[in-house]
TrEMBL record, chains A, B:
Entry similarity comment: Belongs to the Fur family.
Origin species: Sphaerisporangium flaviroseum
SUPFAM superfamilies: Winged helix' DNA-binding domain (SSF46785)
InterPro entries: FUR (IPR002481), Fur_C (IPR043135), WH-like_DNA-bd_sf (IPR036388), WH_DNA-bd_sf (IPR036390)
Keywords: Cytoplasm, DNA-binding, Iron, Metal-binding, Repressor, Transcription, Transcription regulation, Zinc
Protein known as: Fur family transcriptional regulator
DNA sequence: TGATAAATTTGTACATTGTCCATGTACAAA
DNA sequence: TTTGTACATGGACAATGTACAAATTTATCA
């Protein structure tokens, strides 16, 4: 966790010729405060709860901008919503089929693209790996024959 | 292309304790006839065009069942719809950021899981890689500064 | 072949996720 | 201050997928 101060973000936005607007800073701050992986709606809800309510569209817009800039990472982890996180380094994800939890998996290369296809398909700039299986907690909880247990661990937000 | 005859599918369904119902066979046949990668709605539209119309829900249900069985592969390739294809062997996907085209990338291992995470995150049964970049056709077409060109190559269906 | 029980399908309604567009606002340069 | 542009905002909308209950199909067994 290399503490990314808002100032840092302001600088990075400016350097990219973008403006450091309230929604962009608020979204970044929200993701950092929550930690882990969260959907656009999670961010929207968090901001509403913390007095910095933004229109849903603005959350989406900001996330797209920040992802393009590389300040946040976007991961498509299944049928549902994409999840975002503050990006310290390039890495992959593990998704539990049982509880849906998303975990980080370090990337040996640490930079994009970390893998290259055997075939010449064009110009590759990113290789994202999604590992699927059963997380340790679900393995420990047993119940090997119950794939329909959508445990929803209470959202662990600080203040 | 190991020609998978419908009989084959019937057998595989039965062996899994499932029934060989009309929607399941029709969806499999549609995917095989179309070739390549297609969304649930593509399948739905194809079937409607070919006299085997099914309710949208049935297409979704069948795809889930068939994917669980391993008869078809499901790939999450971005913000939009998941794409399905008849599965001959495990492989990965390349998604063009420019035109959205999805291509296959052979997997060196050819079986799941082909990669394993460095960390012990639990029990991994699958590792799906998504390569992103610019496909050869878009590279050739130039226009490096036009990411907003949603070329939609006409759906190449036979019959 | 015909009856039976269970698995599936079907249709509707709905929730979720994401995008489009038109208008208003804030910023930065002249 | 003026002006041009980037951006935010809000509403509507499209796309994608799921839940549910009733009707139907499928496999099994007599």
């Amino acid at each position: 966790m290399a503490g990314k101060l808002p100032d840092d973000i302001v600088t990075r936005l400016r350097e990219a010729g973008l403006r450091a607007t309230r929604p962009r800073l608020a979204v970044t701050e929200a993701l950092r405060a929550m930690g882990g992986h969260h959907t656009a709606d999670d961010v929207h809800a968090h901001l509403a709860r913390h007095g910095t309510a933004l229109p849903r569209t603005s959350v989406y817009n900001s996330l797209v901008t920040l992802a393009d800039l590389g300040v946040v990472l976007r991961a498509e982890v299944g049928p549902g919503a994409a999840v975002y996180e503050v990006a310290d380094s390039w890495h992959h994800h593990f998704v539990c089929r049982r509880c849906g939890e998303v975990g980080d998996v370090p990337c040996v290369a640490g930079a994009k693209p970390c893998l290259t296809p055997g075939d010449d398909v064009g110009q590759v700039d990113e290789a994202q790996v999604i590992f699927r299986g059963t997380c340790r907690r679900c393995l420990a909880a047993g119940d090997p024959a119950d794939p329909a247990a959508p445990k929803d661990p209470a959202d662990p937000n600080a203040a």
